[in-house]
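Subject: Predicted fold for Phospho-N-acetylmuramoyl-pentapeptide-transferase-like protein, 303 residues

User T.R. writes:
Posting the sequence so we have a shared reference for the thread.
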Amino acid sequence: MKIHHFRRRGKPVSPSYGKPTPAMGGLFFIPIGILVARRHAGSNSSGVNGTAIITLIFAVVGLLDDISNLVVDRNRKIPQWIRFLVQTAAGIYFFIWLGSANISTPYNMKFIVPLPPPFGLAFMGKLYLVMATVCSLSMGTGVTLVDGLDGLAGGVAALALVGLSVAALPICSELSVFGASMSGACTGFLLHNRYRASIVMGRVGSFALGGALATIAACSGMFIPMLIACSVFFLELLVVILQVPLSMTLKHIHGTNRSFQRILPSHYYLRLWGIKEPYIVAGAYIMTCFLTVLAGYLGLVSA
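User M.O. replies:
I've generated the structure tokens; pasting them so everyone works from the same file.
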């Protein structure tokens, strides 16, 4: 079966841009990362099992979305509201599971967010549900938005997983094992599939990585380190969100949104300005390296 992913058209890029590239590369490394984590942490690890389940749920949603993109008829594609509903349900399910799960932590209470000194620990209660759900939705979408350049999403996600694994180490070492395993699997895929990519991870990979990052943060309470380590993803998401009211305003004024045809992530505008793809990716890597170190340090001093 020939599966191809068509990138956005109408942008001034290299000659291969716009040509079909095999998709669904996430199928090659997501299962490997989960299996390695279960092998090293043990099949009875509550933290790894719960995180793996949510990761797989997001992977299935992404896989169905990738398959639906092969269908020419738009009426047969998965509507965005269904994806949103499934991801929200997954976040709620995870919160319910987290309330009854026996995850080994140094605290006697759940739904706690460690804050940097001198603030200590913050009990969030039911607000934790909102935080976990919002993180799962935003991370899945953020990684998907970044997956537009060869190696950008995979490299940034691998680095962010390392930082989050270090941050979660004092809370639950099993979560660190899961994060490191997923980072290793993602790095292997990245090295094998370096620029120019022969296959893209697709939404099956980007959704799964976003779900993995969100669940590690939710299990350990390390939301602040996650926000720091995943700044590239949140920045791309913020740029897209800010373009929505502008697009609606232009459509209302002109009766059409031709003046602002597409809502695009920031790395597309960098390419429009003539910056080459490898330089954009390298810059994102360098920035994420510094943010990863900061996130890991902040997690260690907060726990």
